[in-house]
Structures are given as structure tokens and as C-alpha cells.
């Protein structure tokens, strides 16, 4: 459960919270005179909120730890990421709304290419198109073995999810993906005694499915990884008494949102403006909105500082659409940093802006940048405290003790 | 036990520490141009200490959690407030120096008014005066049931404490106060099997006591809440090797101080100056002084910013009395914030000033305000670290490890 001390204090007062996550928001500069994408961007609206509200910076997981997107979002949602570990399989299945219940096992799959000796020559089957991959994956979905039920669904292009349902299954199986070419796939094996039945059934299914793909010209094999079951996350409703909605373009973020019981909203249009308009459309029906902007991270991974700055300016320009909704609390932050200099996720503290016009404390900072956030009134704190701060500033937490 | 790693490091060097708690000290401004009471107050002495020493800000309990006075003070005293939970009954009994030992049960009581059908019409019996309530509460003290001993003592006006002593009592009983009018009081019931004997005896006492008050014109009933027993807090002497004294006007703060083994000093005069003179008088006999100023909180709760500023100025003007004692460590902080804007306790970080002329580290901050504390050299830290910092700066902690 997210912090169990919160639950007895909850006061569902109908106030509304927006958590705007700019994926990979923070950057770094390695010299005093250079600028991060956030510093380079012209963001008058964010700077105004920074002047009025409180800044701070979060540690996503622990000091020095670079998070993947799953644990980074779990932390923002208030779920201690070292305690709640979601297997990749369960996360991917949730992303495409394929149910994984307790006792089911799910895994991520890639179509791949084998040579005549059964060695892998391409781990992604030449990155074949979505349309080419679809019938191959449909063939996999037909493969069944006695005693269990198997569902296989395409995610995107050569990527799919497999879910096996039956009695006595546990997900403690090793990946079959060896993460290299020139070798055969690994055999699926039980990592403990309890998983032997699952290993045997999954092994059988792999054997049958491999035969079925043997005649495919390119995608004549597949690799599985991230075996997992339902992580059993408490819902936002039970943990926070919040009717939460997710506004995101990418399956991964919808997946983790679905696992905490958020309703996944259909977007009314493309891009940032489309996402913000979606919040406007559904404003009455929910009291918590998680809005996810992906491109800040993508440009960070590409090392494209101008591109990242432009997206930040796009967000800033669209911000009035959210502000006109009069949220009680608006938090703008990232799940982790993706510095353009590093072209990857990083462990650096993440800029955090809290604006709650009735309850925030104005600090001395006057613009929304990494360097200002480091001096902000909220200090440097674990990302997993985000929901506690959101609930408090929304007036949704009663006093603790007399 | 407060941090068990402290105990082996303790070095009782005779140095002296003052912990000056300005209740509800911190405020908020929700716009850049307005001022908190602390910012509005003219406090040259505190600002000098801020220039010389270190500032910081504390999180009283956890991020976003608004504390009651009990847990907030426990944290300042070094007792993890989520671990050491003091029931209201035990705290109230300690406040009036009514012993509650392990196995006794204590509760807070209110005199109230019932109508002819036994429904509550006023939960505070029309707030009858201390003098009017005294004989009614004295009647309750006469009521006894076989097998236990009962003490009832007036706290103030219509408020009293009841302590029941006997074999096999545990405090897991529900409140009889329904927290509303127009309904009868709740029956006292056991919250688990072990509390059934206590429930039966307390029920019997309530029955008898209710008969005794039946003829009273106004206060013809009573409500009980916060059943609790001795929380068994380790003493300051055993945890810190400190001979601690409490200088406070209000029973509640004397109560929590008594529970950690502080000596409660009689005040030599009224107001802040009276409290500081009390420290002067007893300076030789103790090495730790907890001094509690209540009115900062009271004015905060009233939303009276001028009043709160004035009290802060009064404290500032009286400060030389403390400084002339040459304390080794002087900490000035609050137990929580009570922003005038919110008229209530809050979760915001609390300003913290540490002045220890031989050991503090001067930081860049030059005045004692919320916004400066947010940038202070001590950072943002849990209030429960206060005693560790106090002991360290007093030279009372040896090195950990070789």
C-alpha cells in the first residue's frame, strides 16, 4: 500500500489535482555557461507558476539510481519502487489492455530471425513492419498446449505479449532472449522449484510455436523476456480515494496507469494540446489527471537539445488550457532526467514545480529551471512523496494525531 | 528508543542546550509579494543568530502530513512519531500530572448535555465555566465500581481525565463521543478480545456515573474519547543522558514533556519573558531546556498575522535573557506550521535555526524567514533529527566507528 498512514487521514473534498509529467524533463550542463533544454526554452507560463508556487527536485528511486520508466512512474504515483516491482511482461500486457490476473504469467516477445542452425541472426527480425508482423503474430496466437490457455497479442511492429493462464503457474522463469546474435535462444527454465510446471508448459508452447513459424521467410522465430504476473498494486481509489484518469499517447504509460486503477482516456487530438483538451473534456468526471508528455524524453535520448526545448515551449504555450480548468493542485515534473548530453535516462534530481494557489508557499525562485529547482522551497525529496504533497496541497489530508 | 545508534556515542560533557519551540512558527504566502508573520516581524536578534548560525527546515512527520501537537513534539524530542503513538487520554493525564502506569487506562472526557431522551444536545455542556464544572466532575470522581480504582480530574472548564486502574485492562476501547448532536452517546465496546474486561468495567462505570449526573441542570452527561495507556517512552535521561527541563504554560506540552522524563518547572512570571527568566533561575540544575511558546500557534489559528508577528517580536526582544546564559546550542524552531492564511496547522516545512557558536557552520542566509530557511545550510530534514543535531553541536556525540 502507498504509505499506510495516509489512508486514515483521507478527506475526499472533491478538489482536483493535475500531475503533468514531462518524460525525461531534467537535463544537465557540465559547464557553468551552457544551458539545459529547460533553461534554453522560453517558458513564461511555467516561470510564472514557479514565481508563485514552490520548486524542488525529486530523487526518482534512490541517489545515483537511473530508473526505467516503470519504476519512475510508480514512484510518482506513490508506490515505493523497490517494493512494487512490475515485471516487464505484466506492464506490456497492461499497456495493450490484455488482462493478467494473479496466477497468470505474461512475457514480452520479439519476433526474430534464425539461421538454418537455429542461431539468431537478427533479434528483431529485420524490424519488419507492423503489417508484415501482424499475420505472423496471429499464427502464434493459434498455438495452444493442453492444460493452459494462451493469448498472444501484437504490441507494435515485431513486438508482442504472451499471456498463459492455468493452474499452478508462477512467473519465475528465465528469459529465452540471450541478448546477442550468433547463438540459439535460451531454454526457458524454472528459477525455483515452484515454477517447474510453468517452465514445462511454456517450454512445450515454445516448441510448438517454433514449428509453426519455421516456414516464415524473415520472422521465423521469437524471443521471450520479462516473465511476470499481476503485481497486485492497490488502486488509486483504495489508496487515495481518487477517481484518476490517465492521458497518455504511449502504451507503456497507459499500462502502468491501468495497473493502479486509472481510467485511460481516449485522446481528443494529437500532441500536447490534444492531451490538454482531453483533460478539459473529462474534467467533471475525475479528480486526478495524470498527463504524460513523451517527446521531452525522446528528444533527450536523441541528444536533440533544440527539439527538447521546442517541446517544452509547446507545453508552456498549451498550459493555459489546463490553468483555465482551475485545478486545486498542478504539479509539473518529470519521471527522471534524460540529459541531451548523455542521450539516456539518468539519476540526476528531477525538476519539480508545485502550484496550488490556495495552499502553496511561495519561495524565492523565479523561473522553472534545474538550477532554480535545486534551491526551491520544497527541497530535494524522494519522488515517492509526490502524492502526499499533492493530496496535502489539495486539502485532502486531515491532521495526524491530536 | 530514539535512534539507538546515538546511545553508544553519548558523551555527557556538561554542555547546555536550549530548544525554543515557537508553536506553529511557520506560515505561507501564496503570492510573491505578500509576507508571512515571520517575514513581517522585526527580529534583529533572531536575524543575527541566522547570520551567524545555520538555517534549515524540517518535515514534522512526513511530507504532506499535518501533525497534531503531540506527534509534532515527539518528533522534535527525537521519538519517531509513527512508532510512538501516544493516546489522547495518556497525554491529557500527563498534562495534569495524573499518573498512568502500564496496565492503567486513561481517557479524555467532556461534560455534555442530554435531552429527556438521552440524546446529546451540547457536546460541551454549554461550555460551562471552570467553577461550575468543578463540583460536577468531583461527583464523577466519587463513582467507583468493584474490581478497579477510578480517578477523575478536571483539566479545564468542562474537560476532564479519567484513569481506571486494575488487573487485566487494555485500552482498545472505542470513544463514546459520537462527535455529533441529536444522537445518544456510543456504547463503549472492546476493539479486540483482550479488551473485553476493560469494556465491561468501563461500561459499568459509565452506567453508574450517568445516574449520578442525571439531576444536573446543564452538565447531565459526559463523553469519553482517546482511551490509552502509558506509552512507555524512554526518558531523556536514558536516551540522551540529559537532565531535561520543560518550560511551558499549557498542560498538553507539559504532558508530553513529562512522558519523556523532563522536569516541569514552575514559571517565575507570565509570558515569554517569564519563561526565559525561568530558564535563568534553573540554569545550573539542568542541561537541556525545552521552552514552549504557545501564542504563535494561537494567533495562527485565529488568522491574526499582526498578532503572530507581535509575539515573534516579543520573543526576539526577550532573547538576550537566554543568550546571556551562554547556551552551547540554541535551536529556534516550531513543531509545525500554522499559516494565518489557513488558520490551522499545516504540513509545510518548518523554519529551523541552529546557533552553536563553537560548532555551527555559518551559511549564506542572513535572516530568519521561511524563504531563507528553505535555502539554509542544514537543508530540509525530518524533525526527528533535531535531537541528533542538538547533541552533536553540543559536543555530546563521539565518533561512530574507527
Would you give an account of this structure?
The structure is a homodimer of 402-residue chains. Chain A has 402 residues and is an alpha/beta fold. Helix content of chain A is 31%, strand content 19%. Chain A contains 13 helices and 13 strands. Chain A has helices at 37-40, 44-52, 69-76, 88-95, 130-142, 196-213, 236-240, 251-259, 271-281, 295-302, 305-323, 370-373, 386-393; strands at residues 17-22, 54-59, 105-114, 120-122, 148-156, 159-166, 221-228, 244-247, 263-264, 288-293, 329-333, 350-355, 380-382. In chain A, the strands form two sheets. In chain A, strands 9-8-10-1-11-12-2-13 form an eight-stranded mixed sheet. The mean pLDDT of chain A is 96. The interface between A and B is large, with 35 and 41 residues.
Produce a short descriptive summary:
The structure is a homodimer of 402-residue chains. The first copy, chain A, is α/β, with parallel strands linked by helices and 402 residues long.
